[in-house]
Amino acid sequence: AEKAKNNGQITVCLMADKTIRKLNLRHMHKDEPTDVLAFSLGPKGNNSLAAEIAVSTERAIANAKAFRTSAAYETYLYIIHGTLHALGYDDKKEKERKAMADKACAVLRNMNISYAHT
User: What is the dihedral of CA 36, 37, 42, 46, to 10 degrees?
Assistant: First the structure.
């Protein structure tokens, strides 16, 4: 659906806040934990996808409680969000954030992944 024509690979690493905080500081210069970081590894413009996605399971658990979802749902959401970043989506502006959130929700619906708290 996103026009990645060539084969690709995504590696997902689940980690604690302490570890993702270190990555966030090293790569984004933000000294705080975050829910997801995405690192695109492939050359731009060749329609393939190569990425590493780091997900904080602690953020998924905390946000599941805050948003009354499940930790699994939050984790899937972060993986999809990271994949969208690897595909070139950005969320620096409000319009971009909304477009990414809408796309992520559509993907979750298409995969029959419910936000229901379990």
Answer: 60
